[in-house]
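User: I'm putting together a small comparison set for a docking exercise, and I want a reference complex before I start. The sequence is below, and the ligand is nicotinamide-adenine-dinucleotide. Could you produce the 3D structure with the ligand included, as structure tokens?
Assistant: Of course. I'll restate your input first, then give the structure tokens for the complex.
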Amino acid sequence: MHMLPAMRSHHKYSRRALVTGGAGFIGSHLCDRLLQRGYAVLCVDNLLTGSIRNIRPLLNHSNFQFIEHDVQGPLRIPGELDRIFNLACPASPAHYQRDPIDTMKTCVIGTLNLLELARQKSARFLQASTSEVYGDPEVHPQPESYRGCVNPTGPRACYDEGKRAAETLIFDYHRVHALQVKVARIFNTYGPRMLENDGCVVSNFIVQALRGEPITVYGNGSQTRSFCFVDDLVHGLELLMESPADITGPFNLGNPQELTIEQVAREILACSRSKSRLRYESLPQDDPKRRKPVVDAADRTLGWRPRVSLRQGLEATIAYFALRLATTEVASEQTRRTSSKRRHHLTVANHPAG
Ligand code: NAD
Ligand code: UDP
């Protein structure tokens, strides 16, 4: 059980939001946005795939508080709470498959704990669900009414079925306890603060392109995805949370521009002016063949549509990674030099004669 200290005095005068997974890629952008909107923000994260680096500029903000906590354990928060955004869960296939049992527990037990908290506080609850609830879809493009095609025993199931079970719990809390709930089914999202080593296609390809390494296309690159820039996505989450109480979703939030993975590779090579070549590697098991959201419901009900073009989004993301790689590569070069100097001193000290 985690007991939190009372929030600094500001929360009395503004609405207070809890963001789980707030030190992650999407969560940290959401924290930025909520603070701009005047919310007091409580960010809860166990730093599994998130990083303090993402929220460092917020740590001195009087309306921001960070708590290191695993949502698999219950969370007790003194005082009022108006909004809960539940984003805690590793999102990239490499990360969620590394400890699949833990992923399932985060999705199910974590969501259950946060729903209980929402019930105690009469807070609105928004869930970061996923297009993975559609699995390897047989209906294309995917509307919210499609029930999906998930392999329940495959390596992606810990995430896909975990998120499906979380949706079930959320709608049961809504029916049984009249909790105000909102579910966003997020499609592939990209932008600054993705991790350079998360194994996702956009981050992998950009890092490979910037380093001049081969671009690793899995399969023949004909599988498709639809990529949404993080600012658009966060705007959708905000609009959904503030929509009238009877609107629950689920809503698809994603960019309907569909691309093959080979097209993604070519776009990134062009945007980064890289001369890297494509290298074809084997396709992971159960990799969905195509994915494209129908976003008419979000458009009609929330007035939301993505606005940032692929080019603009990729340019911003490439600029972020270029800076990040330069910083980490300079840092590791310095470490290498210092340790080789130290080794040299030790060698000299051990062999004074020469
Ligand atoms: P991310 O890995 O950057 O962020 C997830 C955050 O949750 C991390 O900071 C991590 O440390 C934290 N976390 C994980 N398990 C936790 C636990 N048990 N307790 C507390 N914190 C925990 O990923 P992201 O891309 O920012 O994804 C955020 C949310 O959006 C996730 O729930 C993910 O399933 C969902 N989503 C993301 C995408 C996408 O394309 N990025 C697509 C669909 C859904
Ligand atoms: N992919 C790829 N090369 C990579 C990483 C991913 O070809 O280096 C492919 C992957 O097989 C999938 C698509 O890109 O078909 C999107 O993968 P990602 O892991 O980013 O997201 P998800 O599969 O969860 O949609």
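The chain is about 40% helix and 15% strand. Residues 310-350 form the longest helix (41 residues).
User: Thanks, that's exactly what I needed.
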